[in-house]
Amino acid sequence: MTQLRITLGVTGGVAAYKAAELVRRLQQDDFSVQVVMTRGAREFVTPLTFAALIVATNVILVLLIIRPVRRLAHVANQVSTGQLEGAELPVRGKDEIAELTASFNRLFTSLAKAMRLLE
Questions:
Q1: Pairwise CA distance, residues 88 & 80, whole Å
Q2: Which residue spans within 1-119 are E strands per DSSP?
Q3: In this predicted structure, which of 22-26, 59-63, 76-80 has the lowest mean pLDDT?
Q4: Which of 2, 89, 100, 116 has the lowest CB atom count within 10 Å?
């Protein structure tokens, strides 16, 4: 799926503060946001504010999505080579990643049972 790109123009005024929150929410919904600011907007919020939001969003993305998916892929590769010991992963939270991990654990359990029946 292609990530939608949005260019947000921020002008002077108190609403410039709301723009930072808008950028954060758009990024949470997987939009790519580029911010263009007028001089007046820079009097209320700095470009650093928006840069910090982008960095924070990326850190959250890595911690909550990318790292757990990589861990799952690593263990799935181990299982595909027959290394079944220690393949079960801890399920953390109740989000989609946790649901995927729980599904993998059920698959691993079924595979381990099938392997034992074949022995």
A1: 13
A2: 5-10, 32-37
A3: 59-63
A4: 2
Rounded to an integer, what distance in angstroms lies between the CA atom of residue 45 and that of residue 14?
Answer: 9
20-60 tens-digit pLDDT: 788 888 888 888 888 888 887 777 677 767 677 677 777 77
How do the domains of the chain map onto residue ranges? 1-45, 61-119
Please name which of 36, 35, 29 lies closest in space to residue 3, comparing C-alpha atoms.
Answer: 29
Q: With CA atoms as reference, report the closest residue to 20 among 60, 54, 50, 47.
A: 50
| Better-predicted residue by pLDDT, 115 or 15 | 115
CATH number for region 61-119: 1.10.8
**Residue 109: enclosing H or E segment and its boundaries?**
helix 96-118
| Closest CA relative to residue 49, chosen from 35, 67, 70, 38 | 35
From CA 53, how far away is CA 34, in angstroms rounded?
A: 12
